[in-house]
From TrEMBL:
Protein name: NAD(P)/FAD-dependent oxidoreductase
Residue stretches making up the FAD dependent oxidoreductase domain: 6-357
Pfam families xref list: DAO (PF01266)
EC nos: 1.-.-.-
Keyword Oxidoreductase carried by entry: yes
Transmembrane segments: 7-24
Coiled coil, from the record: none
Entry keywords, A to Z: Membrane, Oxidoreductase, Transmembrane, Transmembrane helix
GO molecular function, one term: oxidoreductase activity
Species annotation: Piscibacillus salipiscarius
EC category: oxidoreductase
Keyword Repressor: no
Gene3D superfamilies reported in the protein's UniProt record: D-Amino Acid Oxidase, subunit A, domain 2, FAD/NAD(P)-binding domain
Lineage of origin: Bacteria, Bacillati, Bacillota, Bacilli, Bacillales
Length: 388
């Protein structure tokens, strides 16, 4: 292959592929090469995600990003059609629901007001109203919930493949190789070097390597506040089906659950030591998740594990939000990583924003600059109150 490109993207998961798509759609002039070390994406976060798409955030920037992205997911099948074939992403707008125990309704009201200011149709529900959404839910310890009917969940792998196919159609090139670091000269990025020492040159390099983004950046002399954090998901069946399809529901304990076909999936951000680890344990369900699930919905008492998996959050240790934009110390080196648990629902807006920044030198659709790397030095952290 040509060892020169006009733009290199490291990591072809949902974020890297969305960026490539938006650059090509918006008329980026030049060749785009996406380096992906694992063409089947076995360990990437994207296919291991729960696919939750919500607008229920507590910071202006995250509300705007997720509102924009949700609208894009609605037209995704048509937008990503290749050769007349639509991209099927199984987007189920069944709602997203945070159940509240200790929070007062006034705190939820404040969150809802911010969301509604940006057009999000979020609603505060009383314990009685929660029963309209999940008739079987146990509300004895709940003060209410925050609900958005427009939200829901989708198939993350299909979203990623939708972008990949469209990128290829538009002329982007995926190359299977593992990048070790970025190269530089006089404060400007000059390309990348692979694990085997091959050099590829480009004046623009984007690091969207997910949980591995920090390793590449550190190898290049630009460490990032990102660690890989293991997150487990367990799929289970229940003996007595629920009356209605579930929204993606988050219990006050942080345990979340939703339907996956006729079965269910559940997960929880347990405290773990940072590090790559793809093991999952039945005992995680039996000891940690199941007691909470069975208390919340009596039908979950008779549950049978079908399978499970673990995936890696690209966890930003400073404020659990994405790091987006050009690195202040290296011209042409762009970051799109650290998405923690909300990269799926941010991918369309981030792709659009970075494409604008690279092509036009400024954000146009949404100002993503609150997520710039510099915020760690100026102490302008983006503290998000609704992290799952
Ligand atoms: C269990 C779990 C549940 C989640 N649930 C949700 C949810 O409900 N909603 C939501 O919005 N988000 C969720 N997330 C987060 C979401 O999945 C991620 O934020 C998102 O998928 C990140 O996409 P990415 O492209 O940055 O990373 P990835 O999908 O990990 O892609 C990065 C790619 O970079 C490649 N790569 C790495 N290093 C190199 C290298 N050196 N050279 C070349 N290629 C490299 C990898 O192979 C990988 O394919 C969840 C994550 C997990 C783990």
């Amino acid at each position: 292959m040509n060892q020169k490109s006009d733009l290199i993207i490291i990591g072809g998961g949902v974020i890297g592929s969305s960026i490539a798509y938006h650059l090509l759609k918006d008329g980026f002039q030049g060749d785009i090469t996406i380096f992906e070390k694992d063409p089947v994406y076995e360990f990437a976060a994207t296919p291991r995600s729960a696919g939750g798409i919500r607008q229920l955030f507590t910071t202006e920037i995250n509300v705007k990003i997720s509102r924009y992205s949700l609208q894009k997911y609605k037209t995704f099948p048509e937008d990503m059609a290749v050769g007349g074939e639509k991209a099927k992403i199984d987007f189920k707008q069944r709602g997203y629901l945070f159940l509240a125990e200790h929070e007062t309704l006034s705190e939820l009201e404040k969150q809802a007001k911010l969301q509604q200011k940006y057009g999000v149709p979020s609603e505060l529900l009383t314990p009685e109203e929660l029963k309209n959404i999940i008739p079987e839910v146990n509300t004895h310890d709940l003060t209410g919930g925050l609900y958005c009917a427009e939200d829901g969940y989708l198939d993350p792998y299909s979203v990623m493949q939708g972008y990949v196919k469209k990128v290829k159609e538009l002329g982007g090139q995926y190359v299977q190789d593992e990048i070790y670091s970025v190269n530089k000269e006089k404060g400007h990025v000059t390309g990348v070097v692979t694990k085997d020492g091959m050099i590829y040159s480009a004046p623009i390099v984007i690091n969207s390597a997910g949980a591995w983004a920090q390793i590449i950046s550190e190898n290049s002399g630009y460490p990032l506040p990102i660690v890989p954090l293991k997150r487990q998901i367990i799929q289970y069946d229940i003996a007595e089906p629920l009356e209605k399809p579930l929204p993606l529901t988050v219990d006050p304990t942080g345990v979340y659950f939703r339907h996956e076909g006729d079965s269910l999936i559940t997960g929880y951000s347990e405290k773990v030591k940072p590090g790559i680890d793809f093991t999952w344990k039945r005992s995680f369900f039996e000891e940690t998740l199941w007691p909470i699930l069975a208390n919340r919905v009596p039908n979950f008492e008779r549950a049978k594990i079908i399978s499970g998996w673990a995936g890696m959050y690209s966890h930003n240790t400073k404020d659990q939000n994405a790091i987006i934009g050009e690195h202040p110390e290296l011209k042409g080196y762009y970051l799109a990583c650290g998405f923690s648990g909300h990269g799926m629902q941010q991918a369309p807006a981030v792709g659009q924003g970075l494409a604008e920044l690279i092509i036009n030198g400024r954000y146009e659709t949404i100002n993503l600059s609150p997520l710039k790397f510099e915020r760690f030095k100026t102490n302008e952290l983006v503290i998000e109150g609704a992290v799952v």
